[in-house]
Sequence to fold (100 residues):
Amino acid sequence: MDNLDTKARDLLAKAINSAHGRAAKIIINEGHLRQTAIALAKGTETSEHNAPKCESVLVLMGEIAIGDAIVGEGEFFVPDADRRTVTANEHSVYLLTTVV
Fold:
């Protein structure tokens, strides 16, 4: 069994050392379910993008802004906007769950 905390810390280290300030790894890809761990270095913002039709976010470390919503460590969030950016207010890792 994989340890999600260890994966999150490793991914965050990659993001911090990346020229783009981000790193991602698919954790689960089974049938229609996909879970992706995404790490963002403090201050990194994703480009505006279309949201998946069905998704949830669980912040594992740090704090992110999804559009106007602030989501902190241990908080679960279900976004409702079609287009958005994600900004790391702190070094952060979040688990994005989608149904594809």
Notes: Residues 29 and 35 are 7 Å apart (CA to CA). The beta strands are 22-30, 33-40, 49-50, 55-61, 63-66, 69-72, 76-77, 83-84, 86-88, 92-99.
